[in-house]
Amino acid sequence: MAKTHMPPPTSATGVRSGAWTGWIIFASLMLGVVGSINIIQGLVALVQDDYFLVQSGDDLLVFDFQVWGWVLLVWGCAQVASAVGLNMGAGWARVLAIGIACIGIVIQMLFLAAYPIWSAIIIAMDVVVLYALTARWAEAREGL
Fold first, then answer.
1. pTM, to two decimals
2. What is the mean pLDDT of residues 116-135?
3. Where are the chain's structural domains?
């Protein structure tokens, strides 16, 4: 009896969709992790506003830490929601996640005064998420 070897599934361009599906899963996990961290940072800013040290005064560029805590809390919840949607393979979640990653970069730029290295790390993670969500989406969606 002969065994038949089946090649891995490929897309119309001949590239395996599993690799791009992995990128989408990675993006959703990163959004979930960063969102959870933002929720924690938001709660800390609300409960203990002297936790974050800023050299230039009591305000964080534009807001005080109470407002910034609420911004991070709401933003983190939106990131976690888009991560859940991406894991379900919803197209709306991709559009939401791309917008969230773009705006997240701007939000972290405002947080540079408090934690410059941490903000740079989160910005880099958002850039990787943007790449994962925009490169070969059609191929990746086949595997979800």
1. 0.72
2. 87
3. 18-137
